[in-house]
């Protein structure tokens, strides 16, 4: 089999997605997600200009060799743009291999280790009362694990609580700015979890994301303050590049810790996993170099009893979610899968075999990873420049978002 063509498809059915479609001389094709939120066209150009010409005529079965060729062969390693580009190609190649074998991808990885995949979704509100209600609505939809984020009275909407978050494209020509106060946040947020436990009891899994905004000592204190409410995890406490910072957080709290959604390679996870400073690793197929690389991270984590928790917000396309779900079904050290859901046009542009029921996901049994792209429909949603927001402290200092 030979690769005859590779299309890079950019579409915005509510937000921008970059999709790789690899076509072969035997009529089989595969698709992969290469979306990097807010920097989509950088990845599309990387692929079109630098990657696609190298792969025409190659054997799509040689996934590992192509991965190494794109990683080592570029000389410039890692980084989100490079790793998303490699991921798009890699997911499409695994899709082709599994279709050629007439098997769902999880069978090629070693088969299912479980019947279904536990997922968590998002709930948020402007204040504690609104957030408590939002969590209740999600629970009624069947979710068993819910990430709760609350706005802080007196401050404009903050991370995870601004409803326009889903797409800052049309409304804002430039990044929206949010205001952040660590002190106000840390005084307010423990009461949210106290109220959630009062309202819904101890069985519901509750998660919380601080989006890299705390210092290690602040994170340690928040972890301690939240201990009575038995969180499933506290996510992204400190800036992700500051891996040593987790030593201090870990020494002080028994609240489980998760991190890694902005990591791009196994090297970014190494210290945290080797020293068992975290409980969950959040790398995801699109940002960490595809199925080949994510499987390696999952295996490495399994050696240290760190569990998987793939990033699965709406800015990863349904193709990335599909690839993650095959890995989730297989991984012996699976923990949980994030699933924030998609809008109707997104479901239509990316028809998929994966399905949600009773708080769980399943990748489906269609050969390949089971997700496709409807190119005719995709063409109806042209790219629109969009940015993630930025955060500033009350005095104007730029902060982590
Ligand atoms: C999460 C993330 C997202 C990110 C978004 C960035 O835990 O799902 O923090 O909300 O902010 O994916 O593109
Ligand atoms: Mg997060």
UniProtKB/TrEMBL annotation:
GO molecular function, one term: magnesium ion binding
One example of a Gene Ontology biological process annotation: carbohydrate catabolic process
Superkingdom, taxonomy of origin: Bacteria
Domain Mandelate racemase/muconate lactonizing enzyme C-terminal: 128-256
Family: Belongs to the mandelate racemase/muconate lactonizing enzyme family. GalD subfamily.
PANTHER family registered for this protein in UniProt: D-GALACTONATE DEHYDRATASE-RELATED, STARVATION-SENSING PROTEIN RSPA
Name of the featured protein: D-galactonate dehydratase family protein
Organism for this UniProt entry: Arsenicitalea aurantiaca
């Amino acid at each position: 089999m030979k690769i005859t063509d590779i299309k890079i498809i950019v579409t915005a059915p509510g937000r921008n997605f970059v999709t790789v479609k690899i076509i072969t001389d035997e009529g089989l094709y595969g698709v992969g997600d290469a979306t990097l939120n807010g920097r989509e066209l950088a990845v599309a150009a990387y692929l079109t200009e630098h990657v696609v010409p190298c792969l025409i005529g190659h054997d799509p079965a040689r996934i590992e060799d192509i991965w190494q060729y794109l990683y080592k062969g570029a000389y410039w390693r890692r980084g989100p743009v490079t790793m998303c580009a490699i991921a798009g190609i890699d997911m499409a190649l695994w899709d082709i291999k599994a279709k050629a074998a007439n098997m769902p991808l999880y069978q090629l990885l070693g088969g299912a280790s479980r019947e279904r995949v536990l997922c968590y979704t998002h709930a948020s509100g402007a204040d504690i009362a609104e957030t408590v209600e939002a969590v209740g609505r999600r629970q009624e939809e069947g979710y068993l694990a819910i990430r709760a984020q609350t706005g802080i009275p007196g401050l404009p909407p903050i991370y995870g609580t601004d409803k326009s978050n889903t797409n800052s494209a049309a409304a804002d020509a430039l990044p929206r700015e949010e205001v952040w106060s660590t002190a106000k946040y840390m005084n307010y947020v423990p009461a949210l979890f106290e109220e959630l436990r009062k309202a819904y009891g101890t069985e519901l899994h509750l998660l919380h994301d601080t989006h890299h905004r705390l210092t290690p000592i602040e994170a340690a204190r928040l972890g301690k303050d939240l201990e009575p409410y038995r969180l499933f995890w506290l996510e992204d406490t400190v800036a992700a590049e500051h891996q040593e910072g987790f030593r201090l957080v870990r020494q002080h709290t028994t609240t489980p810790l998760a991190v890694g959604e902005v990591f791009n390679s196994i090297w970014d996870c190494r210290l945290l996993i080797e020293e068992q400073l975290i409980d969950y690793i959040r790398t995801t197929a699109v940002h960490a170099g595809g199925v080949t690389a994510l499987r390696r991270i999952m295996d490495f984590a399994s050696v240290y009893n760190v569990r998987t928790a793939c990033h699965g917000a709406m800015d990863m396309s349904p193709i990335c979610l599909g690839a993650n779900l095959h890995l989730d079904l297989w991984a012996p050290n699976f923990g949980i899968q994030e699933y924030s859901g998609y809008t109707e046009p997104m479901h239509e542009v990316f028809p998929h075999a994966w399905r949600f029921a009773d708080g769980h996901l399943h990748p489906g049994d269609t050969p390949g990873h089971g997700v496709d792209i409807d190119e005719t429909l995709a063409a109806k949603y042209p790219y629109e420049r969009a940015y993630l927001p930025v955060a500033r402290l009350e005095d104007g200092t730029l902060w982590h978002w």
